[in-house]
Predict the structure.
Amino acid sequence: MDEVTFKSDTVLSDVHLYTPNQRHLMVRLNSMRQPVFLSQFQLVWNQDPRIDSGTQGDDHRAVPTEETPAGTGSTGSPPGSSCSSEGSPTQAGADVTGQEGAGAQLDEDGDLDVVRRPRAPSDPDPVWPLRDKVHPMILTQEEDEVLGDKARESSTHDIIRIEHTMATPLEDVGKQVWRGALLLADYILFQWDLFQGRTVLELGAGTGLASVVAATLAQTVYCTDVGADLLAMCQQNLALNSHLTGSGDPEAPFSWSEEEISDLYNHTTILLAAEVFYDDDLTDALFKTLLRLTHRLQNACVAILSVEKRLNFTLSHLDVTCEAYDHFRACLRQLEQLRDGPLRFAVEPVEASFPQRLVYERIRQLELWKIFVEPVR
């Protein structure tokens, strides 16, 4: 496991950018014979005010610090405590390495000019601002032996444990942890009063990270996706975090009772979707599902969507484009322009300047969007 072999059909999660070492051991193989890892994500409540999220201004840079993998750091108030999100110190462990805007840098010959990151912080002449390594601590099943005394002393109410894969074919990317889910989880923790006591539905939940965080605050969270293997992973992650969510075992896993369907339609006021906009067909299906659901819900609601604007060079355009992101934005505009029907849709971006309480790269290409759904008066 010291080296990662990349294949043409392999998609590697952008949270796990570094080659695993011998301490990063998998816990099992799933039904698709893919290695499954267990990562712990520690909530960073006590934060360094010198470090900015990297999403505002042009001159902010993360203060270089000693390497701090997710799963280490300070502890603090658990979710839903009396600690107000207003006036919170700025976030730690952030990154500002995203390019300024989406424009591509070209050299004098018109070729794409790619600025390389240094191979190590010890590089004597780095061409890019230094940053902390970004990877979760990956544990064996003998968790106590790996974590050490310091981690064992940390409050379990500050730790989220997630089972996930590290590299999959495109059709299984929901089994990985993506930065968009971490950004959405950060927003949930920041806007805790919005989620307190509510009924929440997440579409395309993947590993269930955002649903687990929402369940620390909400009264009920419906965590949905497709595929028995992925749903089993979600169920396992809910069980791993039962100390936070208080979740119990469902009587009929992966199915809906009449009571649950009635509760969903009668009480849901928040819908979530994180990083499910990488394929145009999936994006279309998500917006159709949103449209259908919102017409059945009994209350006004808000949908909160996270997306990463991924830059790709395509032969068809001979240029750097963001086709999946452009299609997502087109769907937002179409939804907002709907005039016929009993509902009105208002779309607005969310400024990603709120405190960061999970350790990951909050790059400039990460975005949050809100869709407010209200009846036409």
